[in-house]
Amino acid sequence: MYRYDEFDATLVRERVSQFRDQVDRRLKGELSEEEFKPLRLMNGIYLQIHAYMLRVAIPYGTLNARQMRMLARIARDYDKGYGHFTTRQNIQYNWIDLEKAPEILDLLADVEMHAIQTSGACIRNTTADPYAGAAQDEIEDPRIWAEIIRQWSSFHPEFSFLPRKFKIAVSGAEEDRAAVRVHDVGLVIRKNASGDIGFEVMIGGGQGRTPMVAKTINEWVPRDRLLSYLEAVLRVYNMLGRRDNKYKARIKILVHDLGIDRIRRLVDAEWAALSQETTLDLPAQERDRIAAYFAPPRFDVLADTDTGFEARRFEDKDFRYWVRANVHAHRHSGYAIVNISLKPTGGIPGDATAEQMEAIADIADRYALEGEIRATLQQNLVLPHVKISDLPAVYDALASAALAEGNIGLISDIIACPGLDYCNLANARSIPVAQRISNRFGDLQRQFDIGPLALKISGCINACGHHHVGHIGILGVERRGEEHYQLTLGGRADDAAAIGKITGPGFSEDGIVEAVETVVETYLTLRLDPAERFIDTLERVGHAPFKDQLYGAKAA
Amino acid sequence: MAFKAITANRLSDGIAVWLAEAGQWTTHFDRAVIAQTSSHAALLEEIAAEAVAACDVVDALTIDVVLEEGRPAPKKLKERIRALGPTVRRDLGKQAENAADVERAA
């Protein structure tokens, strides 16, 4: 894992000190809210429905047991005993006291964490594949580049006041587990015929009120030239992105309005000019220094499997189900990637108590190499390097902390934003809908029968619950003072990213649960065989049969 | 005129509050002053603006209030959730404090 050097440590401490002074001045009335708001946002503090909310970055989703214990301590001592893991590898606390915020940031700095640039019109926390360094299909660990981007983008003077927020995601594997195509910039590590490493750069993806899938602007940027290329992209966006209308200010609108070819020419010209005036690209020596932090842990030489593990899998149905859904193949023989679901039946997606966070930290310390933990875009956690022989013990320990739900990738592994229960922007509640659907499909056997299905719920058009890219998406809206829910089908955030299409008129809270049931039952009727996933059936037969069942044949 | 109340967040901890009697801010909606005339609402808004200027509260907002079984209640769901707490965590927010008050009184 990356460790702060003296510059990182000094920068973060200085920022905490500055913010302490800013909070002090605000509380004394020396700063108005208008003056203070951008300062608190740049330190991750929002004012929400019930209180201040603090968003803490988990850079590229990687943290260790010590950091997780600190997140637990903050939840217990400064919040109400829990935290909420988000869809962008952050954690949010919902009941923060502004007076104590600098104290919290100091504690985060103690474990090399911060909340810098988790809000505001700047480059946000760069996200990455949560299986980085462990996945079988990986070309290169994307976290090396996510860390390099973090260092380049933190306090970047030119990009601290962009037209709007800017999100970057990096994948180093064949399978896209970082949703790169729905980010402002999506980076995919590629290897060419000569064995050289480079990036396919995609721009203009995003969700919100105008969802778009990113377009490839450059199929091959040599890895050592990545920073200057990103600088060129950001410069073009910073110069041409709209500032007169915040709903049209994201780079996706610029790409849409000018077209990808024109943007490409502008970026290429800027890139060429940059190359004349500066040597922005990282020297190989510095790249290697950062890469060394992400060197693989010391793996033992182990057999493919383990007799104790196999015996438990044979004897214990619950364990077998958990392994089937939550355990993923590792690149090293004898090891596995363990997903920890934060979606218990009827629970609140992404929430974890302080005790659960501490239990995860203990399990990571004991069973995960180097105590490493990852946060995922699906609001779950991952132990990236676990011995297969330890899986029974890991499962038992997780079960003791009510963390052994075996539903990863299934219909109850629902993404849901905080919605109107917490968020100032929301129009409708999303968590209760998630809970009702989770309860409705609580039977794990039925979930396995349905197979892989991504259901995502947002409480407003800002789409923090990623409903646009859910196989089944639900958007909460307000209509004449009542909560109402639109249904979309066919979204996906993977290599074949697509934006879901609205099925038709929306539903009440009761109606949306029944509508999901109808969609699922229709799929089960239409699929060729159990191996045909929901999304494949939908793409094969189209939306009409689903609309028929939802609204009657006439509506389709 | 529809009934009105003034809500805001306390500057120091962001907790949702409502304007009560004598210019005080209360954490319980039940104690909020309810304006029944435009002039009363305008007066409350003036008091709230002074509290914002004095850095006691932020984001002061006039909200619609309805009568339910003779008792005032915020009209919009969002404001009801602010007044009670998350509907998915009955153990948190004002609803939990109110329940504790009732328990203590008993």
Question: Can you put this structure into words, describing what you see?
Answer:
The complex is a heterodimer of chains A (556) and B (106). Helices cover 38% and strands 18% of the residues of chain A. Chain A contains 18 helices and 20 strands. Chain A has a 5-stranded antiparallel sheet with strand order 1-2-5-4-13. A 5-stranded antiparallel sheet of chain A has the order 3-14-15-12-11. The longest helix of chain A is centred in the N-terminal third of the chain and has 22 residues, at 6-27. Chain A is globular. Chain A starts with 5 loop residues before the first helix and ends in a 5-residue tail after the last helix. In chain A, 54% of the residues are buried. Chain B is built from 3 helices and 5 strands, in the order βββαββαα. With 106 residues, chain B is an alpha+beta fold. The radius of gyration of chain B is 14 Å and the shape is globular. Chain B has a 5-stranded antiparallel sheet with strand order 3-2-1-4-5. Chain B starts with a strand and ends with a helix. Chain B has helices at residues 38-53, 77-84, 94-105; strands at 3-10, 16-19, 25-26, 57-68, 71-74. Classes of the chains: A alpha+beta (556), B alpha+beta (106). Chain A binds chain B through residues 26-29, 33, 47-52, 80, 95-99, 348, 420-422, 426, 429, 431-432, 435, 478, 481, 483, and chain B through 9, 11-16, 52, 54-55, 58-59, 75-78, 81-82, 85-89, 92-93.
A few lines on this structure:
By secondary structure, chain A is of the alpha+beta class. Chain A is built from 18 helices and 20 strands. In chain A, β6, α5 and β7 form a beta-alpha-beta unit.
